[in-house]
UniProtKB/TrEMBL annotation:
Protein's name in the database: Murein biosynthesis integral membrane protein MurJ
Source organism of this protein record: Microbacterium testaceum (Aureobacterium testaceum)
Bilayer topology: Multi-pass membrane protein
GO cellular component terms given for this protein: plasma membrane
Alphabetized UniProt keyword annotations: Cell membrane, Cell shape, Membrane, Peptidoglycan synthesis, Transmembrane, Transmembrane helix
Listed GO MF terms: lipid-linked peptidoglycan transporter activity
Secreted as UniProt keyword: no
Chain ranges passing through the membrane: 7-34, 54-76, 88-115, 127-148, 160-185, 197-220, 241-262, 282-303, 324-346, 358-380, 392-419, 425-448, 468-492, 498-521
Classification of source organism: Bacteria, Bacillati, Actinomycetota, Actinomycetes, Micrococcales
Domain of life from the UniProt record: Bacteria
Listed GO biological process terms: lipid translocation; peptidoglycan biosynthetic process; regulation of cell shape
Length: 540
C-alpha cells in the first residue's frame, strides 16, 4: 500500500496544481470569450475541443486499454522492453503526423459535422473554422504527450505526466492575459474578431500544448529507456495490439459519434443560453474531483492490477477492485455532496455574472449524478483492459453511446416543442449523459462479476451506500451555510473571487461533517484515506 500511496500522492499533488491552474486559465478565457449566450465562445470552445476529442481517443482508448498492459509484459524481455517501446513510439509518431495532416485538410468539413448549419449563423461557422486551423495541430502534440506519458506510467514513473500540464496552463494564463491587455474583453460577438485576434488566441492555446509535450521529454531518462527511431515493426506484436485496439477504437468512435450528436443539439442554444462552452466549463468543474481523486488513486492501482492480471493472480485482482472502489467511493461521495451544494458559487467562477451562474449551475448538478458511477466504472473497465479484453467494453459502451445520442435528441426535440425552455437544453443533455453512464456501469459490473466469478460487490456496494447516507447530513450542513450567506443570490454569487471563496467554505463544512460522522462510526476506510491525505501535508 505504501508504493500505491506514494504514487497516488505524487499524481494527486500534481493533479491538484494542474487543475487549479487550469481553472485560472479558464477564468481568463471566459473574460475573453464569455460563457453563457456567447456565439464566439461556443465557436472557440468547439474548435479547441476538436484536438481534445482525438486526444481522448488516444489516451482513454488505445493507450490505456492496450499499451500499458503490453509495456508491463514487455518489461520482462531481456532488454527491459526498450526495443518494444522504441518501435511503438516510432509507429505512434508516424500515425499522429498523418492524423494531424488529414485533420488540418478536413477542418471545414469537421466543423460542420459538429455544428448544425440550420441552427447557427454562417459567421459563427466561419469563426469556428478559423480557430480550428490554429487548434488542430494540437492533435500531434496531445497524442505525443499521451504516448510518452502512458509509457512513463507503465514504467511506474508517474510524476511528469501529471505535472506537465501545469506548463500549458501557465503559458495560456500569460498569453490570454496579454490578449486581454491588447484587445480587451469580453468579445462574445463573432463579428468583433479580427485575424490577429484569432491567431493570437488560437496560437496561445496550441503553444501551451507544445511546451507541455516537451516537458515530458526532459524526464524521459528517468524511465531507464532510450528512444531511437525504429521502423522495423515486424515482430513487435502489432497484429495482437491491432486486434485489441480495434475494439477500443470502435468503442471510442461510438463515444465520438454520441458527442457529435450532443454538440449539434447544443448548438441550437448558442447565443441564447448555456451551450457548448458553458457545458465544457461545467464538465471542467465536474472533472476536478474526478481527476484529483480517481486518477491519482486509480492510476497506480491500474498498473498494479495489470501486473496481477498478467501473473494470473486473480484473487489479488479482486482484492485490488474492492480496495480501490471503497477508497475512491469515500472521497468521491464527499466531493459530489460538496459540489452539489456549492453549484452556484462554483459556477460563478466561470461566468461573467450572477445570472449566468444561476443559468449554468443546473448543468453541473446534472453532470454530478454520474460522478460516483464513473469512479466505479474507472476500476471495472480497466480490469477488462488488464485482461486484454477490449471487446466487452465496446459493447457496454455502445449501449451508453446510443443512450447519450437518444437522450440528447430527445432533449433537443423537447426544447424545439417548447416542453423545456431553450435555456435548460444543455442541462437536459447533461442529465441524459449521466443516465447513460449509470446504465453503462451497471452492465459492466454485472458482466465482470460473472466473468471473474465475483468481484466482491457485497463488500463494496453496501459501503458505498453508507457513504451516500453519511453525505446527506453533511450536505444539509453545507446548505445551511449557503442560506446563512444569503442563498444562491447572496454574496456567494456576487463575484468570481467571492464565488471561489464561497465554494471553498461550503465544501470545507460538508467535508468536515462528512469525515466527523465517518469517524464517529469508525469507518474502516477512513484511516487509510486520512493517511493518504496526510502525505500531502508538509512533514512539519
Amino acid at each position: 500500500m505504501s508504493s500505491i500511496g506514494r504514487a497516488s500522492v505524487l499524481i494527486g499533488a500534481g493533479t491538484i496544481v494542474s487543475r487549479v491552474s487550469g481553472l485560472l486559465r479558464t477564468i481568463v478565457l471566459v473574460a475573453i470569450v464569455g460563457s453563457v449566450g456567447t456565439a464566439a465562445g461556443d465557436a472557440f470552445g468547439l474548435a479547441n475541443q476538436l484536438p481534445n476529442n482525438i486526444y481522448t481517443v488516444i489516451s482513454t482508448g488505445v493507450l490505456t486499454a492496450v499499451i500499458v498492459p503490453q509495456i508491463v509484459k514487455a518489461a520482462a524481455h531481456a532488454d527491459g522492453g526498450r526495443a518494444f517501446v522504441s518501435k511503438l513510439f516510432t509507429l505512434g509518431t508516424v500515425i499522429l503526423l498523418a492524423a494531424t495532416a488529414l485533420a488540418m485538410i478536413a477542418a471545414p468539413f469537421i466543423v460542420t459535422i459538429y455544428i448544425d448549419p440550420a441552427k447557427v449563423q454562417p459567421d459563427q461557422i466561419a469563426l469556428a473554422t478559423a480557430f480550428a486551423y490554429w487548434c488542430l495541430p494540437q492533435v500531434f502534440f496531445y497524442g505525443l504527450y499521451a504516448l510518452l506519458g502512458e509509457i512513463l506510467n507503465a514504467r511506474k514513473v508517474f510524476g511528469p505526466y501529471t505535472w506537465a500540464p501545469i506548463v500549458n496552463n501557465l503559458v495560456s494564463i500569460v498569453g490570454f492575459g496579454a490578449f486581454l491587455l491588447i484587445f480587451g474583453g469580453p468579445s462574445p460577438d463573432v463579428v468583433q474578431w479580427t485575424p490577429t485576434m484569432i491567431g493570437m488566441l488560437g496560437g496561445v492555446a496550441t503553444g501551451g500544448i507544445v511546451l507541455q509535450t516537451i516537458v515530458l521529454l526532459v524526464f524521459w531518462r528517468r524511465a531507464g529507456l532510450q528512444l531511437r527511431p525504429d521502423f522495423r515493426w515486424r515482430g513487435v506484436g502489432l497484429r495482437h495490439i491491432g486486434r485489441l485496439a480495434g475494439w477500443t477504437f470502435l468503442m471510442v468512435i461510438v463515444g465520438q459519434l454520441a458527442g457529435i450528436v450532443q454538440t449539434r443539439v447544443l448548438s441550437g442554444a448558442s447565443g441564447t443560453g448555456p451551450a457548448i462552452i458553458a457545458s465544457q466549463n461545467a464538465w471542467l468543474v465536474f472533472m476536478l474531483p474526478y481527476s484529483i481523486i480517481v486518477l491519482s488513486i486509480g492510476t497506480p492501482y491500474f498498473t498494479q492490477l495489470s501486473e496481477h492480471a498478467a501473473a494470473e493472480r486473480h484473487d489479488e485482482v479482486k482484492a485490488d477492485i474492492v480496495r480501490s472502489i471503497r477508497v475512491l467511493g469515500l472521497f468521491i461521495v464527499a466531493a459530489t455532496a460538496a459540489l452539489a451544494i456549492a453549484a452556484v458559487p462554483a459556477t460563478r467562477v466561470f461566468t461573467n455574472g450572477a445570472d449566468e451562474a444561476l443559468a449554468a449551475a443546473p448543468l453541473l448538478l446534472c453532470f454530478l449524478v454520474c460522478l460516483l458511477p464513473l469512479a466505479v466504472l474507472f476500476v471495472i473497465q480497466r480490469t477488462f483492459y488488464a485482461y486484454n479484453d477490449t471487446r466487452t467494453p465496446f459493447f457496454f459502451t455502445l449501449v451508453q453511446g446510443a443512450l447519450v445520442a437518444v437522450t440528447a435528441l430527445a432533449a433537443g426535440a423537447a426544447a424545439s416543442a417548447g416542453v423545456i425552455p431553450i435555456t435548460q437544453l444543455a442541462a437536459a443533455v447533461a442529465l441524459g449523459q449521466s443516465f447513460s453512464s449509470v446504465v453503462q456501469v451497471v452492465i459492466a459490473t454485472v458482466i465482470l462479476d460473472r466473468r471473474l466469478g465475483g468481484i466482491g460487490i457485497r463488500e463494496w456496494m453496501p459501503q458505498l451506500l453508507r457513504f451516500v447516507l453519511v453525505a446527506v447530513p453533511a450536505a444539509a450542513a453545507g446548505w445551511g451555510v449557503v442560506l446563512l450567506c444569503g442563498g444562491t443570490t447572496g454574496w456567494l454569487a456576487s463575484d468570481k473571487l467571492w464565488g471561489a471563496l464561497g465554494a471553498a467554505l461550503v465544501g470545507t463544512v460538508v467535508l468536515a461533517v462528512y469525515l466527523g460522522i465517518l469517524a464517529l462510526f469508525r469507518t474502516p476506510e477512513l484511516a487509510p484515506a486520512l493517511a493518504l491525505g496526510r502525505r500531502f501535508l508538509p512533514k512539519r
